[in-house]
Structure formats: C-alpha cells, structure tokens
C-alpha cells in the first residue's frame, strides 16, 4: 500500500471509532509513526484533496478521501479476517493495514467469499 493510502485508511478507521477530526497522535499510534511525520503526511494529503487538515485539531476526510478509504477499508477488513482466522496472526490488523491497498477489490471480494464459505463449513461441522 502506498504511504498515502495507509494514512487515509488510518484516518478513516480512527474517525469511525472516535469521530472526526482525527488527531495526528491517533494516526501516529495506529501506524506506529512519529507525530512529525504524520503531520507532514496529513499536510500533503490536504494538498492532494484527500483530507482537510487543521493544525492542533486534526484531519477529516474529504469526499474523495472517504471514497478511497471506503475501498481500502473493505480490503483491510477482509485481509484482517484472513490473517486472524486462517493464519492466526496476532498482528492481523497491522499486516492488513500494510497490504490493503495492494489488493485489487475483485481479489478481496473473492477472498471474502472463500472465508465466508469456510466459516459456514465450520459452523456446520463439515
């Protein structure tokens, strides 16, 4: 995933969990980055029209940023599910965050279908 995608996804997740605007510190914690590097990237994303960023207040996704984040989030959820339930990774969220933007949405959709079938088979004892 591009660095920008990680930040857009992090702002989206944090805003869903805690509301907007999202502080630089919350993004830094989620991505394990330094606050100054987060601030710099949020300013760049503001310049690109993906977030609205106000120093000392935080970032809010623009319509374009929200559209991108929604697509990324679908892949993130699917990958996190796979890493947790199939591979039993403790780091499933951070791994999913790294890879969400790399997957074509059609691949993520197919993976979701496979995981759903696997869950149903487990429930039915097959």
From TrEMBL:
It comes from Halopenitus malekzadehii. PANTHER family: IRON (METAL) DEPENDENT REPRESSOR, DTXR FAMILY (PTHR33238), IRON-DEPENDENT TRANSCRIPTIONAL REGULATOR (PTHR33238:SF7). This is Iron (Metal) dependent repressor, DtxR family. GO terms for molecular function: DNA binding; DNA-binding transcription factor activity; protein dimerization activity; transition metal ion binding. Residues 1-62 form the HTH dtxR-type domain.
